[in-house]
TrEMBL record:
Protein source organism: Cyanoderma ruficeps (rufous-capped babbler)
Keywords: Metal-binding, Zinc, Zinc-finger
Keyword match RNA-binding: no
Transmembrane region(s): none
Name of the protein in its database record: Uncharacterized protein
A Pfam family: zf-C3HC4
Length: 216
């Protein structure tokens, strides 16, 4: 039941508001809303008078930015029709997480072991992040009024972070500090999970008639 609810919830998040189907070649607008490229282009043609607006919030459409992260999540979702059947081939656990470093779905055990030093988020978080990144890439984040990156949950770690430059002159976003913060948070989450696991082991050693009282 929980697996079916997760599938339904994720599918809703990955549904285009225009065609009411799973995103195809998703693009993000300046307002951070995403649509299928064909859907939003057709919507723009149907309203030639005046500047095109977002069908959801009526903000100016602006330039259409490909949402690669959202596209990847959609592809992963479509590769396995039923989320409950998406098992890790190594550990047999559900692929509930998303590794942003390797761009693949992983299970909780993978996130602790082989992807320990990677940025791991849930599939739902990955979707929301794709919306935020699409908004920032399209320029919406430039109007942020927050004084510091840490004070803004939407733009934390974006343009305020200095860029790293290689010897050949190629620049990359300076996300080292952000990755360290995510790693520390993940380590804490892992520690909490292991603590709960130990508690459950103790719990199941207690006779059933005492378990309800001791474990709850």
């Amino acid at each position: 039941m929980a697996g079916a609810e997760a599938v339904a919830g994720l599918r809703e998040e990955l549904t285009c508001a225009i065609c009411l189907d799973i995103y195809k070649d998703p693009v993000s607008l300046g307002c951070s809303h995403s649509f299928c490229r064909v859907c939003i282009e057709q919507a723009r043609l149907q309203h030639p008078q005046g500047p095109p607006c977002c069908p959801l919030c009526h903000s100016p459409v602006g330039e259409l930015k490909p949402n690669f992260l959202l596209r990847n999540i959609v592809q992963k979702f479509m590769d396995a029709p039923v989320l409950a059947e998406r098992k890790c081939p190594k550990h047999g656990k559900l692929l509930e997480c998303f590794c942003e470093d390797d761009w693949e779905c992983v299970c909780i055990v993978c996130s602790i072991v082989s992807h320990k030093n990677h940025k791991i988020i849930t599939l739902e978080e990955a979707f929301k992040e794709s919306q935020v990144r699409g908004s920032w890439d399209s320029g919406a984040g430039k109007d942020c009024t927050m004084e510091t990156p840490e004070s803004c949950p939407w733009h934390r770690g974006d343009s305020w972070v200095p860029e790293l430059q290689t010897q050949d002159g190629i620049s990359y976003p300076g996300t080292l500090e952000t990755l360290k913060n995510h790693e520390a948070a993940l380590d804490q989450a892992i520690a909490n999970l292991l603590e709960k696991l130990e508690g459950l082991k103790v719990c199941f050693k207690v006779p059933y008639h005492l378990r309800v009282v001791s474990c709850w």
